Structures are given as structure tokens and as C-alpha cells.
Amino acid sequence: MSKGLKICGISDPKTLNYIVNHPKPPNFIGFITNYEKSKRHVRYEKLQKLVNVDRRNISFTSVLVNPTEETLEKIKDFNFDYYQLYDVEPNRTKEIKLRYNKKIITAITVSSKEDVIKYEDYSDISDIILFDSKGYHKSESFDHRLLDKVPDKINKMIAGNIQIDDIPGFKYKDFIIDLSGSLEDEKGKKDLNKINKLLNLFSEI
Fold first, then answer.
1. Which of 178, 188, 45 lies closest to 198, judged by CA?
2. CA triple 106-88-173, angle to 5 deg
3. 51-76: b or e for each residue (b if 16 or more CB lie within 10 Å)?
4. 74-131: per-residue pLDDT in tens?
5. What does the domain layout of the chain look like in residue ranges?
6. In 95-114, which positions are buried (b, 16+ CB within 10 angstroms) versus exposed (e)?
7. For the chain, what is the mean pLDDT?
8. Pairing of strands 59-65, 82-86
9. Virtual torsion, Cα 94, 99, 100, 105, nearest 10 deg
10. DSSP string for 5-16
11. What is the CATH number of domain 4-203?
């Protein structure tokens, strides 16, 4: 049974309001905090206002790529439950977790078996291990079978070009599923009809 659902890359109040108030909301919503190459990036002033809402039982997640101390200080009082960290060494991850009192999603980008086993360095620090593609913001794929030997005790999240119609295939997988690009229209904006389809479909598996 899938452990949960995350919708990532939310950048505007209309979309956020729709998701938060949906009758079948996701478990997590992610916001691109400091990765400016992403079209989903939200600047600090806008981000602070955007996440300052009643999130009900949804966990708000700040997506951070190798964040500086300056970045972390800017967002320390924002309405986030989790920091999702890319390219952060284990010791630094632990330091961030303790200093800012946030739950941690460690993102590991995968293209080979050697990439997957990096989770072992973070398993005692992180609340969730995210296995993502090497594409970051480009929604690329990787072979999910590479995760078959990751122990069940690891709280796993999976991303990387997952499509809405792929969701039923995760019914018996113990992953939290993370989608972003597949929920967008041809202009790269989140499509509420696609989000609605996803949330309804996920609730049935």
C-alpha cells in the first residue's frame, strides 16, 4: 500500500488553495525555495505569504538545493514542517535538522545502484529518503527496480517523471509518491483538472 502522496512545485495561491481545500488532499505539498533554475521557484517574500495559510493536516515542505546559512535564516520562521535537501552532506544535514528543528527529507538522485546505496549515510538522520532522477527540475526518469533492495524500514519517497496514470501501479509499493511536472499544462503551469484527477485516483488505491 502506498504510504502517501506529495504534490511539488506549487507557486501560486489559487493552486495552493485548491489543493488544501480538496476533499482528498495530499499528504505533502512542496515549494521550490532556493533553486532559481526551476520555473517553479518562489521568491522569499512571495513564499512567506504563500505558505502562511491553514495547511490543515498537510505537511508543507521547503525544497532546498545545498542551502546557505543565509537562505536557512531567511526561511526559519516560514510555515514549513519539512526541509527537502539536495546535495547536502550527512553532517550538514544533521546540523540543519537540529538547529532549525525541522523534519528532513534527504533527496538522492539516482541513475545507478551505486547512487541508491547513498541512503545508508542518511538513514539515521532523515525522516524520509527521496529517490529522485538526476534531472532535478526536468522531470526525468530512472529505473524504480533499483530500489527493490532498500529495506522496508526506510521511509521512502519516489519522484522522477511519474505520470498520473502510473499511480495504480504503486498500489502495493511502500513509497510516498511525488509528482510535479505531470500536473502541468503545456505552458508549465499547474493544471487544476490534472491535480483533481490525481487526488481522486490516489484516494482509490
1. 178
2. 15
3. beeebeebbbbbbbbebeeebbebbe
4. 999 999 999 999 999 999 999 999 999 999 999 999 988 899 999 999 999 999 999 9
5. 4-203
6. ebbeebebebbbbbbbeeee
7. 93
8. parallel
9. 0
10. EEEE---SHHHH
11. 3.20.20.70
Cell of 14: 489559487
Sign, Cα dihedral of 186, 191, 194, 198: positive
pLDDT for the residue 156:
95
Confidence (pLDDT) at 118: 96
pLDDT at position 138: 55
Write down the pLDDT at residue 145: 85
The strand pairing partners of 199, in sequence order, are none
Q: What is the pTM for the complete model shown?
A: 0.94
Compute the half-sphere exposure of residue 80: CA atoms within 13 Å on the CB side of its CA.
26
Band (pLDDT 50/70/90 cuts) for residue 148 is: confident
43 versus 3: the higher-pLDDT residue is: 43
Residue bearing cell 533553486 = 35
Taking the alpha carbons at both ends of the chain, their separation in whole angstroms is 8
Residues 6+ apart with CB under 8 A from 133: 109, 110, 111, 139, 140, 141, 142, 159, 160, 161
Residue with cell 528543528: 101
